[in-house]
Amino acid sequence: MREKVRRHLGKVLTGAALAAAGTAAMVAVTLPGTAGAGESGGAGGGTRAARQTGPGPDAAPPGVVERAPAEAERGTGRDPLTDDELGRVEKAALAGRLSALGENVTGARGPQRLSIDLAEPEAGETDDPDAPRRADVAFYDYKNDTLVTKTVNLGTGKVERTDTQRGAQPPPSRAENAEAARLLIASPLGAGLKSDYKDATGKDLTSPDQLELSGGIYRAAPGAQPAVLDACGTHRCVRLFSKVRNGPWIDTRDLVIDLSARKTAALDRG
After folding, report:
1. How many of the other CB atoms lie within 10 Å of CB of 129?
2. What InterPro entries does this protein's entry cite (predicted)?
3. Do the Cβ atoms of 154 and 133 come closer than 8 Å?
4. From CA 184, how far away is CA 256, in angstroms rounded?
5. Cβ-contact 261, 267 below 8 angstroms
6. pLDDT reported for residue 67
7. What's the pTM value of the predicted model, to 2 decimals?
8. Beta-carbon neighbour count of residue 250 at 10 Å?
9. I need a surface site. Which of 15, 34, 96, 228 has the fewest CB within 10 A?
10. 105-111 contact pairs (CB < 8 A, 24+)
C-alpha cells in the first residue's frame, strides 16, 4: 500500500499535523452537583447529596433561541454591506460594456466576480458622519486577463471610478477553485488525485463538489516551471489544496491550473 500511494501524483497526506486539522477534539464534561453524590458526611449528609440531582437555586435559566432581527436595506457609516446593498452594487458595476463583452472563468459572458467590499472613505471624509458609503467591486475579465475594480456610490447607485490592471492577481474565488478542480479532474494529470480519492472513499471522483477546496495564485518564476506555465502571473493560474469531504487531504500542490489557457501542468519536484 505504501508503494502504491507513492506512485500517485496526488498522494494522500498523513501525519499528526494534518490529522489534527481534520479531527474535532473530544472534551469530557463533569456536570455540577454529581461529584460526591454517593458520599456521606455529617447527619443526613448522604440523603442531602442524593436529593441534589437537579439544578441549584443559582442555575442559569434555559436558553431561548430568538429570531434574528430583520436586516435594514441600507447600512450607515462603516456598517457592513447589507444583502440589498450587495445586490444593487453588483448590478450597477456590471452595467455597460463589461457585462456584454467580459468573460468569466467558465467562458460564459460577463466577468468573474471576485469580491465586494466596503470602500475606504475619501480624503477628508474620515470624520464626516454624513460621508457617502461606497463599495469596491472586483471582477476578473478572462477575455483579456484584466482585473477590473469599480467603486460604486451606495447612495446614488453610480459608478464613480473604474480601475483596470493587468498582472494583478487577487486570491481565487470559490467559483475559480471549483473550475480549477474540474479542469484537473478532466486532465491526465488528475489521475493521481482520482486514484487517491478512490483509495480514501471507495468512490469515483467526478465533480469538484466531492472535495473541499482552497487555492492560491501561482506566478511564473525563471526555471521553476515547465514552459507551458511561463505566462502565469499575466494569466490567472491556481494551485489547489484539496481535501476529501469529511476525509483526508490529498496533495495536489505540485499541480498548477492555468485558468486563462485552461491547461494543467506539474511542477518539477526536484
Report:
1. 7
2. Cu_amine_oxidase_N-reg, TAT_signal
3. yes
4. 9
5. no
6. 62
7. 0.72
8. 27
9. 15
10. 105/140, 105/142, 105/175, 105/176, 105/179, 105/259, 106/179, 107/142, 111/139, 111/140, 111/141, 111/142, 111/143, 111/148
Residue tagged 505504501 (cell numbers): 2
CA distances from residue 186 to 32, 179, 201, 208, 260 in whole angstroms, order as listed: 57, 11, 19, 11, 16
Per-residue model confidence as pLDDT tens digits over 106-151: 999 999 999 999 999 888 777 777 788 999 999 999 999 999 999 9
Rounded to 5 degrees, what are φ and ψ at 49?
Answer: -65, -40
Q: In this predicted model, what pLDDT tens digit does every residue of 217-257 receive, in sequence order?
A: 999 988 778 999 999 999 999 999 999 999 999 999 999 99
DSSP bridge partners of 235: 232
CB atoms < 10 A from the CB of 131, how many?
A: 14
Largest Cα–Cα separation, the chain:
88
User: Which residues, 6+ apart, have CB-to-CB distance to 189 below 8 Å?
Assistant: 9, 255, 264, 265, 266
Closest C-alpha among 97, 88, 171 to residue 137 = 88
Cβ 149 vs Cβ 134: under 8 Å: no
Yes or no: say if 74 and 85 are a contact pair by the CB < 8 Å rule.
Answer: yes
